[in-house]
Amino acid sequence: MMTLRLQIIIGVSILVALLIVIGMVRNRKLELKYALIWLVAGAAILLFDCFPSFMNWLSRKMGIASPVNMLFLLGFLFSLIIIFILTIVVSRLSVRIKDLAQKIALFEKDGKGREDE
Amino acid sequence: MKKIVIIPAYNEEGNIKSTVENIVRFAAGFDYIVINDCSTDQTKKICEENHYNLINLPVNLGIGGAVQTGYKYAVRHNYDIAVQVDGDGQHDPTYLNKMARVLETENLDMVIGSRFIERQGFQSSFVRRIGIVYFSSLIKLLTGHMITDPTSGLRLSGKAVLQQFADEYPKDYPEPESIVAVLKSGKRVKEVPVIMQERQSGISSISVLKSFYYMIKVTLAIIVEKIRK
Hints:
The structure holds 2 protein chains of 2 kinds. By secondary structure, chain A is mainly alpha-helical. Chain A has one domain. Chain A contains 4 helices and no strands. Chain A starts with a helix and ends with a helix. Chain B is an alpha/beta fold. Chain B contains 8 helices and 7 strands, in the order E-H-E-H-E-H-E-H-E-H-E-H-H-E-H. Chain B has a 7-stranded mixed beta sheet with strand order 3-2-1-4-6-5-7, sandwiched between helices. The radius of gyration of chain B is 16 Å and the shape is globular. The N and C termini of chain B lie far apart (33 Å). The mean pLDDT of chain B is 88. The chains are: A mainly alpha, B alpha/beta. Chain A binds chain B through residues 94, 97-98, 101-102, 104-106, 108-110, and chain B through 35, 54-59, 61, 65, 68-69, 72-73, 76, 171.
């Protein structure tokens, strides 16, 4: 079983984190598209944290000895998913930046060429 | 036949002038374009002072992105043949017209200048040659074609390959990987013997520390290129 104290610590931390994320979306520092996965992860873990009986049941089904370990497992899995999504985004961005840089350079070149004529 | 030399240059202030002048002098019939990959030294200034045909990249893209800019330029300006000559003076421009003739008369898509057919001139260090033989074998295994010098930067391409490279070109260490892409699309590639110089000044873009990363990255890139749709 998870102690009430740990439950409160986890719950409060996640609430604070969620508030920060929402605040950043409001300030437009974070795009909602990329904040979404964080919000879903936070909400899911918060839900498990608030209903320990469900967590106990699920962890027993999954063969995890201590319910709190399932919470950690979940947090870890969400982190991996988020990191993976970021890797995809970085790959896409780097291709786009390369294409843009080349386009700018070629445009600058041909623009100058026309001025010379 | 419109022919162009693509000269990628990153911090080549010591070599760029002689490279361009040698091309103008010894490669008659070839236009050229210098791609300055956001150099931090005097490369840009030297090119502008001498009124070289120059493209300046706004950010550093690395060798692959720089060379690809040249291929895009060649496609835009309707060139039939493009050849890459490194800005460090390793490639002798007198070969360019010979290579172009081979491409035309034998109706090929790509001609590669190889150091290892006649084994003359600068043969690279022993360790690098092991790497080159390894890549050669890997390409032979995967494509069935023998390429003796898969890391050679001296490569002359016809229109079909120009278009292919303008559309897609690897970012770093592009040579072996892009050869596999060309072979895989069924194009005809041939190697001709050339003699290369040791670099005139500056340092090669591949340091000893990076070699390990280089081997693994290029191996994976070649395999990925082979299994791609």
